[in-house]
Amino acid sequence: MLQMENKLAASLLQTFLKKHIICLYSSKFSKGYGKNGDLVKVSVCTAKTEINHITFFFALYQILKSGVLSGLFGSSKQRGSKNMELRKQNYEIIPIIVDVPSNLRTINFFLVKAKESLALIDAGLDHEACWNALLETLQKNGLALHDLTEIILTHNHIDHVGLVNRIIADHLIQVYAHKNAIPRLKRDRQFLEMRVEFFSKLYEEMGCHEAGRKQVDYLKESIVKNRKLAIQAEIIPVESSHLDFQIIEVPGHAPDQIALYDPKHRWMISGDLLIQHISSNALVEPDSFGRRMPTLLQHKHSLEKVSDLPLDLVFPGHGVFIQDPKDLINKRLEGIEKKAEKIMNLILNGETTASGLAQAYYGNKYSEQFSLVMSEIIGHLDYLEFKGKIRKEMKKGVWHYSINKE
């Protein structure tokens, strides 16, 4: 059995091995990066015919030596544009990939170079590693910061917008995003105060009590503490097409998330819609009127929408690039159903509040990653309620959930 993290790489290796009369029994794919994202985990077991191990390792050595796989595996420097041909007739995608010491593994943002433009898609975190990676990538490609013509943001999260103010302070260019991103990116005080009230009520109704109040206090403090993070440039609502891409709304992870899709070449820059090594969280958020959005349902619909598109390659906001993403999308959709079934079983076993379900399902992560955990549980409860599998009843100001037996 050959274990690798990317289907294309596995296919190339398998083809090469067959030339050396090696018959592989099957191919499966698993996470294979080392601590710093530098290692590929490869293991071989029983094949239909006896494998000549000397021939195998000679074949593997030749492939690694040739650099065929280096564009998809290895460190961020190896996964950059140097080793991947990402040029099409009208434009070239130049990845900027920064390793991070978290389960995100990398922060990815992209230059799209065309004859008349140089767009930056997302802008990483506001720290020196991302800033230096941007400048170094520009320099290696014979470009400079002043060559940038615009910035397009896939969504409002801090790890996708961090360098915007730093760039426009030196080089004022247009910034595009979904219209729903604007109050968040501008850190509109009225909107943020409404958001605090939304979460204060939500966490009380979900039975979170002290843990919820602690998170709400954090959100209140962040209104003042993070006001300098507001994007200083004018933000222009992105239209349905831009450059050589169709702009597709893919809410769920964020209400303002967009993907840039090239139907001619079947490429997509997807923000955080789809990540190879982890599932993307559907984060609970209010709409502009303070109403809770069904974010997991939105995320599921976004995945289904993308699954229906002719698509060969996805450029995600984190991790490795995704070849032929339909299998991964199906896996993520199956994961939603499996988690929903587990939550139903917990309800059957007597857990009736969102807070109780979160603690039963996630254990210590309830306090360590409170907002993420509650988003997951609330999202799945909304999904189950939408499907008619459960119902809720307000008791003393807290929602209690039960199985709908009708």
Give a written overview of the molecule.
The longest helix has 23 residues. Helix 9 packs antiparallel against helix 10. Among the domains are: 65 residues, no CATH class; 190 residues, Ribonuclease Z/Hydroxyacylglutathione hydrolase-like (Metallo-beta-lactamase, Chain A). It has 406 residues and is an alpha/beta fold. The N terminus is likely disordered. Helix content is 38%, strand content 18%. The strands form 4 sheets. It has a 6-stranded mixed β-sheet, with helices on one face. A 6-stranded mixed β-sheet has the order 9-10-11-12-13-14, with no helix packed on it.
| CATH architecture type of the domain at 91-186 and 231-324 | 4-Layer Sandwich
Rg over CA atoms, rounded to whole Å, is: 23 Å
Biggest sheet record = 6 strands, mixed
Q: Give the termini separation.
A: 47 Å
| Tally of DSSP helical segments | 13
Strand order, sheet with most strands: 3-4-5-6-7-8
Number of distinct beta strands: 16
Structural class computed from helices and strand pairing: alpha/beta
